[in-house]
Amino acid sequence: MVNNTSYSEKVKDHFLNPRNMGKLENADGVGQMGNFLCGDVMQVYIQVEKDKEGVEYIKDIKFQTMGCAAAISTSSMITELAKGKTLEKAMKITNASVAKELDGLPPIKMHCSNLAADTLHMAIKDYYKKQGFDISELEKKDACYRCCEH
Ligand code: FES
What atom in ligand 1 is closest to the CA of residue 109? Predict the structure, then answer.
């Protein structure tokens, strides 16, 4: 765990050795978000395939982040959490779950994990839009996923 100001070993590891960093050419869905308070920017690219039951899942995922250590660590972690998950399950990954997987973030850095979760969700919604789905219901659920996982 971390105290109020220091980063956990996991955060440091993901910052120094980010997983799935880069761009996916011909991505099926792309999310891009910026944090208007700090100016950090993140992009998430997903490749979606269907499993044997026809359920869509994230076959591959990459990110590009221009930001702080926490933004890069949470970006890296969220790609690990989302890879292989169904789109439905990936939509339920919250900023809190990312921070938890990293053994916590200093309170002043919690907002950085919002960037990762929001950008992943945006990439998934982009995928659905490109498939021609009406995502208004998903937008409502997404607002709920911000505060709880269910
Ligand atoms: S300070 Fe901007 S995302 Fe961390």
Answer: 4
Residue 24 DSSP symbol: -
The number of residues in the chain equals 150
Which of 33, 36, 38, 73 best tests ligand 1's pocket when mutated (most atoms within 8 Å of CB)? Answer: 38
Structural domains for the chain: 9-145 (3.90.1010.10)
CA distance linking residue 43 with residue 65, whole number of Å: 6
Tokens of 31: 């999310």
Residue 112 known to be catalytic? yes
* Chain position carrying tokens 């660590």: 73
pLDDT for the residue 146: 63
| pTM, full prediction | 0.90
Alpha helix (H) ranges present in the chain?
9-16, 69-82, 87-91, 95-101, 110-130, 136-145
Q: What is the pLDDT of residues 76-96, one digit of tens each?
A: 999 999 999 999 999 999 988
